[in-house]
User: Fold Ribonuclease PH from Desulforamulus profundi.
Amino acid sequence: MERVDGRKPGQIRPVFMTPNYNKYAEGSVLIEVGDTRVICTATVEERVPPFLKGLGKGWVTAEYAMIPRATGTRTVRESAKGKLGGRTMEIQRLIGRALRSVVNLEALGERTVTLDCDVIQADGGTRTASITGAYVAMILALNKLVEQGMLEKIPVHDFIAATSVGIVRGTPVIDLCYAEDSAAEVDMNVVMTGTGRFVEVQGTGEEATFSRDEMNRLLDLATAGIQELNKVQRQVLGERISAGMGQV
Amino acid sequence: MERVDGRKPGQIRPVFMTPNYNKYAEGSVLIEVGDTRVICTATVEERVPPFLKGLGKGWVTAEYAMIPRATGTRTVRESAKGKLGGRTMEIQRLIGRALRSVVNLEALGERTVTLDCDVIQADGGTRTASITGAYVAMILALNKLVEQGMLEKIPVHDFIAATSVGIVRGTPVIDLCYAEDSAAEVDMNVVMTGTGRFVEVQGTGEEATFSRDEMNRLLDLATAGIQELNKVQRQVLGERISAGMGQV
Amino acid sequence: MERVDGRKPGQIRPVFMTPNYNKYAEGSVLIEVGDTRVICTATVEERVPPFLKGLGKGWVTAEYAMIPRATGTRTVRESAKGKLGGRTMEIQRLIGRALRSVVNLEALGERTVTLDCDVIQADGGTRTASITGAYVAMILALNKLVEQGMLEKIPVHDFIAATSVGIVRGTPVIDLCYAEDSAAEVDMNVVMTGTGRFVEVQGTGEEATFSRDEMNRLLDLATAGIQELNKVQRQVLGERISAGMGQV
Amino acid sequence: MERVDGRKPGQIRPVFMTPNYNKYAEGSVLIEVGDTRVICTATVEERVPPFLKGLGKGWVTAEYAMIPRATGTRTVRESAKGKLGGRTMEIQRLIGRALRSVVNLEALGERTVTLDCDVIQADGGTRTASITGAYVAMILALNKLVEQGMLEKIPVHDFIAATSVGIVRGTPVIDLCYAEDSAAEVDMNVVMTGTGRFVEVQGTGEEATFSRDEMNRLLDLATAGIQELNKVQRQVLGERISAGMGQV
Amino acid sequence: MERVDGRKPGQIRPVFMTPNYNKYAEGSVLIEVGDTRVICTATVEERVPPFLKGLGKGWVTAEYAMIPRATGTRTVRESAKGKLGGRTMEIQRLIGRALRSVVNLEALGERTVTLDCDVIQADGGTRTASITGAYVAMILALNKLVEQGMLEKIPVHDFIAATSVGIVRGTPVIDLCYAEDSAAEVDMNVVMTGTGRFVEVQGTGEEATFSRDEMNRLLDLATAGIQELNKVQRQVLGERISAGMGQV
Amino acid sequence: MERVDGRKPGQIRPVFMTPNYNKYAEGSVLIEVGDTRVICTATVEERVPPFLKGLGKGWVTAEYAMIPRATGTRTVRESAKGKLGGRTMEIQRLIGRALRSVVNLEALGERTVTLDCDVIQADGGTRTASITGAYVAMILALNKLVEQGMLEKIPVHDFIAATSVGIVRGTPVIDLCYAEDSAAEVDMNVVMTGTGRFVEVQGTGEEATFSRDEMNRLLDLATAGIQELNKVQRQVLGERISAGMGQV
Assistant:
């Protein structure tokens, strides 16, 4: 099978990250995965949500949005509609959950890190690019706390990155662009750590189903691709900061 | 490991379904999975959502809600809050997607089947019980269309059922009750067909991660449990109606 | 005049109540009045609304909802619409007001009892069935407080029940089912105590009017019917609990 | 018992109506009942709500609001809160229902008359003053349709007016001002026609109850008071317009 | 050019103000500018918004609304739509800002003055009439605080009034009525102090533009007109109260 | 007076525009004015708002938003709050009005051009940068329609750009950065055409006032600065496209 952009089934798109893209946020990165572009900012606030008050631990949460022309046709703003759609809520819950899996919330202390993922161009894989980018923004923000003497070390013990895999016209492929995504029979988002453990696996066969064998082949592709993403993250963060996150 | 209610790791809770529980709906069932109870009704309407108008195919969608005291402490109504929460949206999107995977929407014609899943008591696994029950309510409603001569045959080619699996204190178990669910390190919802193919796999390690091996063990448990649920569905629907859905 | 279900003008429908229908609520009952079915749960919380803070008295309030297929055609959820309709607000204000009329709020102490009335099948008279059922759920919850030593006695001095009366094709009748209700010229909801005093009388002649004589005949019917409902309540609660509520 | 403003138990407050108070509305009146002041405007539109489309009949509906300082302390605007309160909905449903009871909707034709009742000063009895005033605004608007040749005659066959009655410190009184209303044990709103038939009776004993005897005395007071209100309406509308509404 | 109502280009419409129009508000006025009528009430509350807590200074804010038939065709209520429109927000922000420019917020103390401007008839210039009227209502309310000994003197050092100017069929005119406003090429709202300084200048050429010369002629007209409005304000407030506001 | 960033009173910040910044939008530009950065996209749709249906003319409208960390501290998303704030509405109305002033809506035909201005970094002057950038995005989109043969020529006859001016510690200055803006006594936004005519002048003295002289000096500064902005626009669009917009 020929992929629409000539890639091999197991080949991810080029990934670029511009750290400190925003001058106000405690941490920020512009992540580009092919033509998908997401601004990720990390905000640190010295407060926690009500359900954590007084428990001595922190919180990591995320919000996700797209500008109207991130997409091929204009998408109506959720602020204009007056409510968040189900897809948005699903994605922002996913991003927050994924990042929390490697953060030591007790060591973070009574602080909230909010990751804002604003998609300025969407060519497939925006939620996984958001996770991969938000991880870097979060580490940069936490490193600033270390530099300011507010934390002894970054309270994170592993890398987190994510990619999509799917079955397109019968072939399992990785990192689907929008054209592939709309044609896919099976769509799976995988979030993994740098040490190769799963954080989230969300496989969906809308109007289709998939076998255990197919699932295994998709997970193999994802595992390999995420290791490449971890390498880019390591490079962007630099060896000094990455040291505490283990080998990737 | 002793489970909180004495079950074995691979043992699902007792499942009962009361078909035609509601006198108005085209199809309905009260499903009880242990102490979890969900009223599932299927409504057939001779119209489709705007994005399908004139395409000659139908739609299957779902809504999900809990009464305030479905839970141990009272949950504020989403109607009073004025908006649906992220969890609700995630669940109702999941139920709709799961059921659509086995429905031939062209054969359904320009009709919408809406599955309403109202949880009246929640002891874990409400989303998977909703899928298992909604499937039965949908088949009953479609069978009524067949009896009324509006469809030649039920446009569904397989069974659909769902269960949760997870890792509780290190042990993979199936069909977690609320007490287990709150203590689980890994939580996975699996939707499968009667022929053993996956429709959805959603595995989550909130503040934890899981290995490929653990994932495989969870999928084994789910596969076996869902076959049992398919048998109960077959029994409730009867052989005549179930015939077209294949063996389970 | 023949009533649609063969009843006599002054005959109420069969009434069943299943106490403790819900395992989590402090008090609960499933009330069935003919084909009308309402789950009533009572939640006790150790707090009062802001306008009562520090006044040493409690509060009783109610919420009311219908599942979408409680009705002949599917009703859109108020949570999906994002706001409560006027009818819902009117009904839940009525239920709360009715119950408060026999509760000694000072004796209740700084607590709130919330009655949730969730209609799972609606065949007329859902608001009056909600009142009759919510009364029982409330008493069961308050009795639990007595058993736990948090109250010396149930702070309620009388029974409360409700029914509808109306004029259908010229004849005054009691406890209208949906078919009668839609055809009624005059519709009246009456809430009374066990000692025969009025709590609420809401008579409405939409696109019609009624004379003082007709009003009197309707009140006579309601008075007799509510006494029967009080007897069912007494039976469900048992003599020991009912003792403090006076004779009915 | 001395009433707070020296009135006798059966004495209503002075009533003034300024017809054509607004230069744009098809019909309008400023009604003053004591210190209660309501601007009532009637708008005629050549369309009906969706549920009446193509049925050849019209509709009469109402909306009700208060300016923030209509009340002793400032009330937050419902537009600022983003939703209508239960009290507002209850009142506007009541006004619409009351007026429809004497309108021949078929003779009105496919038109909607919207009555807007804006309370600019509230000293008790705002909902009943709204009904009494809205009736006059509606008749003025319908009369304009007759003058323009769009209707042959005003499609209304009777007067409608409303007042409140209640039990204050044991004494049944009519037309309660705010100070009386807040102290009342029983509160009843009565809407009647010019021919002495009831349209609505809403009696409420919040945290109190009332006997059949008390109810009868309240209805006697209301009947007499509403006849006086009908006379003022007749005077404001003039004999020519009032002719078709019967004697009062 | 002949103006629609025969006025000269620089002539404002007749202005009347009825002080203490409302019996509950701390200060109130009914302002009539031609057929435009606005009820302005001032509410004083002993609290400040969160962003001013503990800073020892007060706040002045405004809200603006129209009753549905203030306009030629009925305008849907913003409370029914569930949100404030952009025009409303723009206007109420403008009114608040305008009044704050002459109030010494430190001398006001930790109090909030809320100006409610409710338009009961709209014939152009409602926002400027609101400012001119709200100023008077505010001074009356502050004077009451002085009389009650809560303030030593009215903490306001100048008058504030506003008018509209615009270019209608090529001619600069002042105080546009609705018919002129809808036909204007350029529309400008000017808020000035009694000492002739600008507070706000908002000039707009929707689908048109204007030259520096035209702008100067509009500002000349506005300056003259606002002096007349100041005189009416001075007259309504009386010399004693007006004394501290400087000459006009 | 020394400006915070060393500029002279009449000196604007460096302005860069990256045309075609977004691959999906019909026209787009990233505009940078100092550290203020706004993504402007223009969407062309072959439909008009309801109030223009069938009138043979088009529409130009705008929306404005900021990502949460566009600002020094995180701003809550309006989509999460469920409604647009007054400031947002004011700004998006201003942008749309400003652009419409130079577009021939009849020549545009029954099309809507929507300008989305998404601020990704805010250092003062975001609304004026949005106008300046949105103008370029709009022209690029209209030029595409010309290239596709859907329009004969770009239906725009002049340039539009905007800047802020204000009085900071007594000195009139242009193009205020955030630090200056928060300290300004008077703040004025000016929108002008390339031929030096005003489109909008919005001058505000929050808690301050300004004289006619000061106003004149501010307008002089704005006029000069906007000519510079027009030159940058001309350069970005190129001579061929700019030809029809007149000299600047």
Observations:
- Helices of chain A lie at 78-81, 86-100, 105-108, 126-147, 178-183, 212-242.
- The first strand of chain A starts at residue 15 and ends at 19.
